[in-house]
Amino acid sequence: MKFAPHTGSEIEEMLSAIGVSSLDGLFEQIPATVRLEGPLGLPEGVSELEIVEDLGRLAARSRHLDDLVCFAGAGAYDHYIPSVVWALAGRSEFSTAYTPYQPELSQGTLQTLFEFQSMVCELTGLEVSNASLYDGATALVEAVNMARTGGRSRVLVSQGVDPRLVDTLRTYGRGSGYEPEVFTAEGGRGGSPPVGDDVAAVVVQHPNVFGILEPASELFATAREGGAKAIQVFDPLSLGVLAPPGELGADIAVAEGQSLGNHLAFGGPYLGLIAARMSDVRRMPGRIVGATVDQDGAPGYVLTLQAREQHIRREKANSNICTNQTLMAIAATIYLGWLGPEGLAEVGRQCAAKALYAAGRLTEIPGVSLLHPDAPFFKEFALRVPGDARQVVEGLVEHGYLGGVALSTAGEDVLLVAVTERRTREQIDGLAAAMEAVVT
Amino acid sequence: MTAIGAPIRRQGPPGHGTILDRSVAGRRAWSLPPLDVPEASIPPAHARAQDPGLPEVGEVDLVRHYTGLAQMNYGLDTGMYPLGSCTMKYNPKVAETVAALPGFQRLHPLQPDSTAQGALELLWKLEEALCEITGMARATLQPPAGACGEMTGLLLMRAYHEDRGDSRRRVIIPDSAHGTNPASVRLAGFEAVPVRSDARGLVDVGALSKLVDESVAGLMLTNPNTLGLFEEEIDEIAATIHGVGGLLYYDGANLNAILGRCRPGDMGFDIVHINTHKTFATPHGGGGPGAGPVGVTDELVPYLPGPRVHRTGDGSFSLVQGGDRSIGRMHGFHGNVGILVRAYSYVFLHGSDGLKAVSELAALNANYLAHLVSGEFPLAHPDMRPMHEFVATAKPLREATGIKAMDVAKRVIDLGFHPSTVYFPLVVEEAMMVEPTETESKATLEAYAEALRQAAQDARERPEILREAPMTTPVRRLDEARAARALHLRW
Predict the structure, then answer these.
(1) Contact residues, chain B, for A26 at CB < 8 Å
(2) Domain A69-81+341-439 is in which class?
(3) Which fold has domain B352-480?
(4) Per-residue pLDDT tens for B227-285?
(5) What top-level class would CATH report for the domain A83-333?
(6) For chain A, where do the domains classified as CATH 3.90.1150.10 start and end?
(7) In whole angstroms, how large is the CA radius of gyration of chain B?
(8) Which residues 338-367 in chain B show a CB within 8 A of chain A?
């Protein structure tokens, strides 16, 4: 066996101590009717070398982002990850630990999560956060569950919210008994949600799925005047330059935190962020770390407010979260420590400047135009391209670019382009040249 | 003596000593190339007025701070970690090597299928392998954790019944079940109905049959159950639930006990979730990431969430959205693919023979350790043979000395080990739930048993040493009541 250290004689000694004659004897309680006859239909085990070569062959069959220049976004972004992040987060004292049920042996995880919660509060301008959720989409589900209280049940969602988030909300809503209702955004932004006294939440993404800056404070004021919770889906790396959700009037803010030092990894593991006001702390989902003292008065950290959680409240819990994304939260904490306030603002400035430059270069191409020409955007923008955007993406791959994401819900000819601080002027000019070749 | 080294006593008020306390105005770790395009201005109405209160530190500050914190953590690489129900077995290093290949780690989730063939093939092969291991027809790899897998399975159950015009509302759960089961049941819009365990620690089949009627949507069961015992009457249980048109849900928390011996599909289960960090040793990260693939029988395939990987006639792979009957989407993208790559490496490294050996040696270790400790800490169900884990009780010790299971756990820390799970399952008083896993040696098991024996002796001879424990850790017992009363959740 690969990682079991037993020798043949040790197995014999242990069986003899237990009073069983063979390993099969340990499984006699399994009724014959359900026992598996013969081996599993899988190949026999192999050496580590063979596994590394097998996976090396599979890995080589994809075109990764050190090969294709990435302008794809839509919730997952190619930001630079400094070496220090995974040199530290990858330490096995962090990665091979369990949920900190014995706090005396888990102060590293617990304190880092306390720092993570603090940084999420600092970013969002809100008062309380938690130890992470699965990803941005499921964080939105949890935020909506927090808001659906006091007889209010309806959930209004802006057309500017990423359709994959709305799909996720719709799926979980089947269990909880709601159907998200999408309200129209005029010209890619804004809208006037009808907030009656049965509305629990108004959800706005800012910057939205088109990358556009929303009139978020007006939408949130409308929500709050109607007695609903204002929920913002935000981009954590925008918050060095954009006003924070708390200041805009959001009650609950959620985000996909992948961009904070986590690998793209074809979709996960990512990181769900959530922050809210202190008055809602008892409705927060998942794990929360609190500072306290030990019996000698020394500072330390524990999981707290556990009376909200599934392992105590069982069917009365407002969330079923058990495992979350702690290691991704640790990476995000180290990444934000690396950036500091100045680096965070610089990343935001560079993304915004490079996106604006890219939009200018791309819209010089005949037939290519901005989907919403009058709306200000942050690091992402939607283009109309000649023909099917998916074909354009495939064409750009031939030139060495992952040129964006086809946003079919907005039209077959809509291409969403994201520009991070990693992209150079030369790469943007190269994308524009490739685009011109592909569409003309 | 402790495995985590000499304690460094911490000082200062609660919340002191964070990375923010190392901040020095003007210090920085970050660097980026100078901007090579014209500046853009943020519209004033949208601009941030005041910087967030993040630390200003250098790279060396970061390295020293988080290395220091890492050293305050006990991980599997530190030592034995016998948390019952959590399956903390050694996490193979090769899994980290392959997950870091750029062909997996540097892929965007929305890049065209034609550019992601290797990753799609891996997901397809993993789905096939998980179906073979569990005896299911197809699976979704989307759920990012076991509890999300439960939610997925329950939504599948709901969609299945609704499609038949059935609005069944009750889901039966044994009283020994993990708390996520009833929480997921409620979130999926069902009512959780407990069924009691009998004196053997198994589902009371008589009680179950009295609960069952056509309002039952299904039963959630862990097998072996959370007491580490195999539900021997699984045939009768399955017949009872199927007899009224309900579905059987397999909570895969203990799948690691039966690999290659029996399969949930062959036991009559219709839906199965797998915790990859338990069965396939993906690192748990101190509380995630996990992955919770869900397998189903043929009848339930149309309801699976999308997108899923399909293999086309020419042998290429593509992501296909769910059809009309799909429950929708459980995750923003395709699930925790980085974790699934690690799970793939574990499955194919071990193969059919190695996976069977995993369960055999897990059972051997659990039974051997149970044999060594049951003199001091009797098994909750001494007449039953445990499988991969066992539940002992400190109740006799408490009655004799006043020392509780938690005190024993804290003493075990001072004796150099991470303790077992305590106070779960809830149906056993002073429960100590021990899962040594197959990756611990005979000598380590004996040392752990000796630590428990020492703790019991100390309880009788010098109980104060248990009440004061732990004394060798960076912090001692923490005031949890104060943490919950005087909430201090951020700097």
Answers:
(1) 360, 363-364, 367, 385, 387
(2) alpha beta
(3) Aspartate Aminotransferase, domain 1 (3.90.1150)
(4) 999 999 999 999 999 999 999 999 999 999 999 999 999 999 999 999 999 999 999 99
(5) alpha beta
(6) 69-81+341-439
(7) 25
(8) 338-339, 341, 344-345, 347-358, 360-361, 363-365, 367
